Amino acid sequence: MKKTLNLIDPIDEWGSMKVDTNGRLIDISAEFCENFSINKQDWIGTSINDIIQGTFNRKRTKVLFGVIFGYSCLVKVSKVNEHQLYRVIVRQDDIDHVEMISFMNSMDSSKMKKKSSFQSRYSFEEIMGESPAIERIKELSARIAISNSTVLLTGESGTGKELFAQAIHGLSSRKNNPFVAVNCAAIPDELFESEVFGYEAGAFSGAKKEGKPGKIELAHHGTLFLDEISELPYQAQGKLLRVLQEREVERLGGTANKNVDIRIIAATNRDLKTLVQEGKFRQDLFYRLYIFELKIPSLRQRKEDILPLAYYFINYFNEMLGRQVKFIDVKLQEWLLNYEWPGNVRELKAYIERGMNIVEGDTIMMEALYFSPSESAPQRERESAPLLSLEEAVANAEIDAIQRALQEAKGDRTVAAQKLHIHVASLYRKLSKYNLK
Ligand SMILES: Nc1ncnc2c1ncn2[C@@H]1O[C@H](COP(=O)(O)OP(=O)(O)O)[C@@H](O)[C@H]1O
Ligand SMILES: [Mg+2]
Questions:
Q1: Domains of the chain
Q2: Fewer CB in a 10 Å sphere around the end CB: N or C, the chain?
Q3: Which residues form the Sigma-54 factor interaction domain (predicted)?
Q4: For residue 376, pLDDT beyond 50
Q5: Residues 64-90: pLDDT tens digits?
C-alpha cells in the first residue's frame, strides 16, 4: 500500500530548548526532558554549545546537525523575540555518540576521500545554502531519510539531486550498506537489463560463465539510486515495477527469484507526469515512485545561495590547487547574481574552478568571465538530453545567443546585432522567426 507522509506538520518533534542572547539555556520543554531523560533544573543556565556537540560553528545556520546527550540530531533554530528556539526535529537512535563525532570530525578534512566508493560520499553538512528554500529541503530530506520511503528528487540538472540522494542515504539506518547509483541515461538499452537485473550463467552469448549480480542485488540492504529515471527503457520499467512491488529480483535467464531489501531514491530533471501522459513512462511505475517528491529549486530561484556557494567552491579549490583566494571582485559578484545559471550549481562550480586556475592574487576578477561559463555545460548531462534534429538544435542555439546578446545590450537591438556580428535586419528577421520580444 502507498504510504503518504505528512511533512507539513513536524512528525518527529523531540522537544525544544530556548536559549538567550548569551547562548545559555533558559527553558527546556517537557518533551525534551522526557525524550532525553534529563532533569530540567540540572541544565538550565548551561551553554547550548555544551549540549549540542560535534557540530560546526557555521554562522547563521538555521538547520544544524549535532549530538545531544548521545543522540545524533537534526536541530532547527529559529528566532523567538530576542531568544532562540532550538527544536530537535530528527533524532537518530542508531548512531552512537563516538561514531557520530568521529564521522563529523572526518568531514572537515580530505580524509573523506578515503571512504569506500560504495558508501555515499556526502552528508547534509556539505550541502551549502542558506536560502529558506534549501533549508526547507534539507529539513524535509532529513525527515524522510530515517524512513524507508521511496523518494523522488526532481529539479533541473546541476541542482544537487545526487548530492541529496547521498546525504539521505548517509543519514539513514542503511548508511553502512551500499549506495548503488544507476544512471538510466548512460547505460545502452541492450545492456540495461543485464546491468541492473543481473544474469545467470549462459543467459546470452558473451555472458560471464558464472553469471553476474545486477545493481539491484548489489544494493541489498542499502539504497538504489536511479538517476535520470525518465530515460529508463520502457520494457525495463515493467521489470522495475515488479521489483518495487515484490521486492524480488529475477536475473536474466534465471528461474528463481531472489529477495532484495532496498530503498529506492530516483531522480529526474524531466516532468514525469507529462511523460506518463505521452505514454512514455508507465503510470503504475510513476505512482510507485511518486510517494514523496523533493523538488530542488534552480539556482536562479534562490539567488541568496549564489555567493555563499561561490565562496564555498573558492575554499574548496583553494585547498585543491593550493591557492589563497579570499575575495570575489564586486563587479563579478554582480554578474554572478544576475546570470541565469542554466546549469545551476554544477555550472557555478565549473565556473569558479576555471576562474581559480587563472586568478592572480587574492581576488577573483571579471577577467575570469572571458571564459564563457556556458561553454562548460557538462558533457554527461548533454549526452543524456534527448537528441534533437539538427534544425531544432541550431534554432535553440540561435535563440540562446540572441537572448544573451539582447540581455548584454540591455535590449538595444543595434548593439545586440553588433555583438552577434550580424546585420540588424537579420536580427529582426530572426526575432520574428522565433517569435522573440
Ligand atoms: N547545495 C550544494 N552545496 C554544495 N555543492 C553542491 C550543491 N548543489 C550541488 N552541488 C555540487 O554541484 C554539482 C552537481 O550536483 P549534482 O548532485 O550532481 O546535481 P544533479 O544530480 O541535480 O544534476 C556537484 O559537484 C555537487 O557536489
Ligand atoms: Mg545528476
A1: 16-113 (3.30.450), 132-295 (3.40.50.300), 299-380 (1.10.8.60), 387-433 (1.10.10)
A2: N
A3: 127-357
A4: no
A5: 777 788 777 778 888 888 899 998 877
